[in-house]
Amino acid sequence: MTEAAVPRFWREIPQRYNLIGNQCEVCNRVYFPPRDACPYCRRKSIGKMKDMKFSGKGKVVTFTIIHEAPENFEGQAPYPMAIIQLDEGPKLTAQIVDCKTEDVKIGMRVKSTFRKIQEDGYIGAIYYGYKFKKCD
Amino acid sequence: MRDVAVIGIGVTKFGELWDKSFRNLIAEAGAKAILDSGISGSEIDALYVGSMSAGRFVGQEHVGALVADSSGFTHTHIPSTRVEAACASGGLALRQGYMSIASGMHDIVIVGGVEKMTDVVESEATNILAMGLDQEWESFFGVTFPGVYAMIATKHMHDYGTTREQLAQVAVKNHANGALNPNAQFRKAIPIESVLKASMVASPLGMLDCSPLSDGAAAVVICAADLAKKYTEKPVKIIGSGQASDMFPVHGRENICTFEATVHAAKKAYKQANIEPKDVDLAEVHDCFTIAEILAIEDLGFVNKGEGGKAIENKITTLDGRIPINTSGGLKAKGHPIGATGIAQVAEIVMQLRGQADKRQVKDAKIGLTHNVGASGATCVVHILEGM
Amino acid sequence: MENIGIVSYGAYIPRFRIKSSDIAKAWGKDPQAIAGGLGIIEKSVPALDQDVATISVEAARAALARCIINPQDIGAIYVGSESHPYAVKPTGTIVGEAIGATPNLMVADFEFACKAGTAAIQTCMSLVISNMIKYGLAIGSDTSQAAPGDALEYAASAGGAAFIIGKEKVIANINDTCSFTTDTPDFWRREGRKYPAHGGRFTGSPAYFRHITECSKILMERIGSKPADYNYVVFHQPNGKFPTRVAGMLGFTPEQVKQGLLCPVIGNTYSGASMVGLASVLDVAKPGDRIFVTSYGSGAGSDSFDITVTEQINELHKNNSPLVSQLVADKEYVDYATYAKYRDLLYWE
Q1: Which residue in A64, A100, A105, A113 has the most chain B C-beta atoms within 10 A of its own C-beta, making it the best mutation to test that interface?
Q2: Residue in B371, B369, B351 with CA at minimum distance from that of residue B361
């Protein structure tokens, strides 16, 4: 997997721990992860992107069960990865946890939770972030 | 803007080529292309080469200059440029070379693509391939390159009723074609049961739904169309060239089962060539996974969205079908040395349009299309070619 | 002591479980004898992507979900554990970021074997009483390690609880607290070593029983109470038998112990043990109920607390977070091989 450099990970803690995205103040569209410029308003949106915290609730748009896992994820295979649409609109890619692989369904309601995503071996840093579990 | 034609092609065998290095491979392809074109190396004005990750695979950057030197252009001091767009590096290199001639900057250009994927262990190769995805928001969280296409396949099956059997049929067809291609990595037909029973990589894609890790290189010599007949009796004109980009991570797209980059690149190419999809006689499309070929024939306009699976099932895209797809064996059976693929696709179409495709020859092939995609679809390069 | 106590609380127990009988079978021991002798049926197992940081965040978020306080008003976070993910780099800062309490925040990680969490409660109390902070967050959580085949393997489990300490809208007053501390080496883990070591039967009478009974007696004498005054008592629970035995030694009844005794079904969550026990009691407690808590940490020491539940507990949005009973019931079994993989007993590169 990537040797995610520590500063790069640290910079994204607000996104990975707390789903902080942003909103274009010109057209009100919301984005996760946050964008430097709104792709619709482009130049007009520079400096007008406002931080926004997403609720973490959403639904499964599509998924797969990963059998051949990448580095740092081997012990967890097989595990479900999904594209999830947050209730506020944006979609993201994340692992689904606390759910049997055969129970994952398109349309399933999910909620974000705080888990360990990767470790940089036994000596390196530990990277935490979002995964999603079934919710009502 | 001038017209551009292909006057020479060269392709190495694709496979696990332990004895051949990165430099050996590109020099071999380049030499073959020059010999095929009948020109002298000193007539070449510029070199473009596509390679996704020489840096990670063989520890080498600054590859444009290295390839020029390794190929023997040392004392011509030609300008040499490496381009990268993940798996579309080859197609992108061709487009850069094409634009340099069309604009009048150069007259004769050699374009190559090369990748040496087996000098690292397979798990490292998999990690490198995943670098074509969104590192921060896709791969970091545990999805693999096959995983992303698998999610597209799951959605396609859910929305359009595509079946695992239809996906498997793509692999069966391409292996049948590869069996007829002496340079292909896999030259044996496989039964559909093998594909369906292969071990799971990321559901619903199994081992045999995925293109392999390969070494290989390919090269073409292109020149201003009005010079072409000076060098060869069978030049092939590039009548359309289109390139487009899209939302980078797959999850960001409106419709996950459509590659907008393909749609836009193809539109531009069709417009320039002044043709419609139905005018295309055959195509080399980017089947990094079986589902990718199904998406490709839909997004290129050969069939309607959602009907790619049925098209395979109804054998529309076999060697003797209405629109043969991947007569070379595709990425699946021919192999997928990443940077080389885009150029190898062009070489196959040129062979077909010249009537030199031997056992794979499509009757009356007049117009061919190549479709080269970067990673999970954020870049697409389409070229349309016609025999002159 | 002036009005100070628990403003909110939350707990988290990982979903996987392994039966003590399956552990016994792996090591060729008699499953019935083990389960019977230790009073442990099954224990919780953390998944590969769970550790003390993730458990602490879950517990802290559960506590915040039940009340209405601004996380920025939390002035200190102390996480007590024997299995902090880093030997150097605090778990508390990870929790602080994850709940939005940074950057105006005091943080340090605590270690005192199984009583690190209750020590954190005492520290938060002092900061609140002295008006240095408005709210303090005390967390006890562990993914405790046990050497494969060792007796501790049946009990060492994972879980944690978080308590928000403050002066306003207190759901349970902590009327008084005291500690009893000696240098008693009954159980320890050396720096850099993966598994703890212990003194066998020495961990009983001179360690667990002495400190819990002495500490409890000192507090009850100081405030003039007796066991019968309390509705509930929570003791540290290294197995399913010790808490009831020490209760008897002090004059408490098994009924008083029951609600706060989770070890038989989730094992010993070490720094989380007494804390999760207290959370379980608060899940059902009514205004006016009195609760007595004595934790124990090897090395050794005990912290005792005299607690009275207030009317405010009815205002707490308890159902915004899972009750301990719900966390216990939400489970999935794993076999010993999977357990070994999750607990990193099988080293692989």
Answers
A1: A64
A2: B351
Q: Give the closest of B137, B142, B153 to A66, CB-based.
A: B142
Task: Quote the minimal CA–CA distance from B209 to chain A in Å.
Answer: 13
Q: Name the closest residue on chain B to residue A12, using Cα atoms.
A: B136
Is B136 inside a domain boundary? Answer: no
User: Is the per-residue pLDDT at C2 higher than 80?
Assistant: no
- C42, C58, C236, C263: the catalytic one is C236
Distance CA C1, CA B386 (A): 92
> DSSP string covering C113-138, please?
TBTHHHHHHHHHHHHHHTTS-SEEEE
- pTM comes to 0.92
- The answer on B379 and B246 residing in a single domain is yes
Residue C338 touches chain A, beta carbons under 8 Å: no
Annotated active-site residue in C114, C124, C215, C263: C114
Q: Where are the domains of chain C?
A: 5-172+314-342, 173-312
Amino acid in position C340 = A
pLDDT of residue C275: 98
Does a cis peptide bond (omega within 30 degrees of 0) precede residue C103? yes
pLDDT in tens, B313-322: 999 999 999 9
Residue B44, C-beta contacts closer than 8 angstroms, at least 6 positions apart: B34, B73, B76, B78, B108, B109, B110, B221
Neighbouring-strand partners of residue B108: B223
* Residue C58 Cα, gap to closest chain A Cα (Å): 7
pLDDT in tens, A116-133: 999 988 889 999 999 999
Q: Give residues with Cβ within 8 angstroms of A102, minimum separation 6.
A: none
* Architecture category of domain C5-172+314-342 in CATH: 3-Layer(aba) Sandwich (3.40)
pLDDT of residue C34: 86
Q: Is the pLDDT of residue C4 over 90?
A: yes
Helix C273-284, helix C116-129: angle, nearest 10:
70
Crossing angle of helices B290-299/B145-160, nearest 10°?
60
Domain C173-312 part of CATH 3.30.470.30: no
* Interface predicted TM-score (ipTM) of this complex, two decimals: 0.94
Backbone φ, ψ for residue C324 (5° rounding): -60, -40
pLDDT of residue A1: 43
Give the best residue of B133, B199, B251, B289 to mutate against chain A (max A CB count within 10 A): B251
- Residue whose entry in the numeric block shows the structure tokens 């409106």: B254
pLDDT at B184 exceeding the cut of 50: yes
- Our answer to whether residue C124 is catalytic in this structure is no
What distance in Å separates the CA atoms of residue B144 and residue A76, rounded to the nearest whole number? 14
Residue B132 lies in a domain: no
Task: Specify if B195 maps to a domain.
Answer: yes
CB-nearest to A64 from B134, B202, B251 is: B202
Nearest Cα of chain A lies from the Cα of B120 at a distance, in angstroms, of 14
Is-catalytic flag, C236?
Answer: yes
Put simply, the chain B residues between 9 and 38 with a CB less than 8 A from any chain A CB are none
**Contact yes or no for B251 and A63 at CB 8 A:** no
- Residue B371 is among the residues annotated as catalytic for this protein: no
Q: Tokens 């739904």 identify what position? A: B209
Considering the domain boundaries, does residue B314 fall inside one? Answer: yes
pLDDT tens per residue across span C20-66: 999 999 999 999 888 889 999 999 999 999 999 999 999 999 999 99
